[in-house]
């Protein structure tokens, strides 16, 4: 009796000249939402590697059976902060007593790899294709010196969580919040008690490195992020009148004598990378949303909270690098978010989104709609080797979460 024919699964690097149609077909089949439920669909605008293209190193793999593409995975590698250590700052010392020298926190960097966009055709699941894609991507990570691999998924995506935690050796690591706010048909008013400054990429880099370089997942190549064409600017908010003049003094002078409260954030243009679309909404919900927009456009002075056009492809701006200090820092963040809303309106976006640590104190200042947001995004992590360690951090996978996290916009 002859045995069943063995299925040969080939995993290889994505070839844009011949694989684009097959990849897009798998993407469409994977994004068929459950009957009767609202689902979110992603249009990659004809560029399957758009979500990793701007990273320092990236790769996309496809799985095929015969000549049919049945799965794909994307990955990228970068160097990020995984902790901090204290070092004596001798340059700032004012006496010869080393015991009283100020201690300066310095970032501890590690080479981290990120997995995203794992897809397996619904008709070819339970064949080990996803596992094979992950393992081969991890091989590439190791060959390129990555020390950790991590991924993000919805907290209730049981299939994805089981694959990574049960079969691939990942552990649950962080649960940041994705906060999404609609872009209304009217401009929102930025508090007249706040002054907003726009920083040059050089000034922004200096500020981020001085104050936020030890934040978990802070990218060492922050200069590349800030100078990218998709980065629309970095903005600082301070209480009106807190600076001696209305001109930005430069990050050096600002940090040497900061106001009692301030905040900073940067804006990334996801609209030119991909578009989103909500499908499966009932006619009642669509009619309600359209009515709110019509009222908002007709009576903008009322500043009614309208539902944007989410039922056809729409773009978004992503807010990253949120930080601040002082008792009114959350209010400064609110002013920056209002400013970012108006930028998104001018750019024709449907929503503004950000992702912050679950315990982020500035979270209180970020406006968002609960129905559009995700309280717990799940990040899972895996250590790729055992022959390295920094005594100040040890195994990063076992470290407790901090108050803040830096979410790289190149991976959103």
UniProtKB/TrEMBL annotation:
The gene is HLS1. Residues 9-214 form the N-acetyltransferase domain. It comes from Turnera subulata. This is N-acetyltransferase hls1. Keywords: Acyltransferase, Transferase. Belongs to the acetyltransferase family. CDD domains: NAT_SF. Coiled coil: none annotated. One of its GO terms (molecular function) is acyltransferase activity, transferring groups other than amino-acyl groups.
């Amino acid at each position: 009796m002859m045995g069943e024919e063995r299925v040969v699964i080939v995993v290889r690097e994505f070839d844009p000249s011949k694989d684009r149609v097959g990849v897009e077909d798998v993407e469409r089949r994977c994004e068929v939402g459950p009957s009767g439920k609202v689902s979110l669909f992603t249009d990659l605008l004809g560029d399957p590697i758009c979500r990793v293209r701007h990273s320092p190193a990236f790769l996309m793999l496809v799985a095929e059976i015969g000549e049919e593409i049945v799965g794909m995975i994307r990955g990228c590698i970068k160097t990020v902060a995984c902790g901090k250590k204290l070092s004596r700052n001798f340059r700032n010392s004012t006496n010869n007593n080393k015991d009283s020298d100020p201690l300066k926190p310095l970032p501890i960097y590690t080479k981290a790899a990120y997995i995203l966009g794992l897809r397996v055709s619904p008709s070819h699941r339970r064949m080990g294709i996803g596992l094979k894609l992950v393992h081969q991507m991890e091989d590439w990570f190791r060959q390129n010196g990555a020390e950790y691999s991590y991924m993000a998924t919805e907290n209730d995506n049981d299939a994805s969580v089981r694959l990574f935690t049960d079969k691939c050796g990942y552990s649950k690591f962080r649960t940041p919040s994705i906060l999404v706010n609609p872009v209304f048909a009217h401009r929102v008013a930025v508090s007249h008690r706040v002054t907003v400054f726009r920083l040059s990429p050089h000034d922004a880099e200096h500020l981020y490195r001085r104050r936020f370089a030890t934040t978990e997942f802070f990218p060492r190549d922050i200069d590349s992020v800030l100078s990218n064409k998709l980065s629309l600017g970095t903005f600082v908010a301070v209480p009106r009148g807190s600076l001696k003049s209305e001109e930005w003094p430069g990050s050096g002078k600002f940090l040497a004598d900061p106001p009692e409260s301030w905040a900073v954030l940067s804006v990334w243009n996801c609209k030119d990378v991909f578009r989103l679309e909500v499908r499966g909404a009932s006619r009642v919900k669509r009619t309600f949303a359209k009515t709110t927009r019509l009222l908002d456009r007709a009576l903008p002075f009322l500043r009614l909270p309208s539902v944007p056009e989410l039922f056809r492809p729409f773009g978004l701006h992503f807010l990253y690098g949120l930080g601040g200090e002082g008792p009114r820092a959350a209010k400064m963040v609110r002013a920056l978010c209002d400013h970012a809303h108006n930028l998104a309106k001018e750019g024709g976006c449907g929503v503004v989104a950000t992702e912050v640590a679950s315990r982020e104190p500035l979270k209180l200042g970020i406006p968002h709609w609960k129905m559009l947001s995700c309280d717990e995004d799940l990040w899972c992590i895996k250590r790729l080797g055992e022959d390295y360690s920094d005594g100040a951090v040890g195994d990063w996978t076992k470290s407790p979460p901090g108050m803040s996290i830096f979410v790289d916009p190149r991976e959103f």
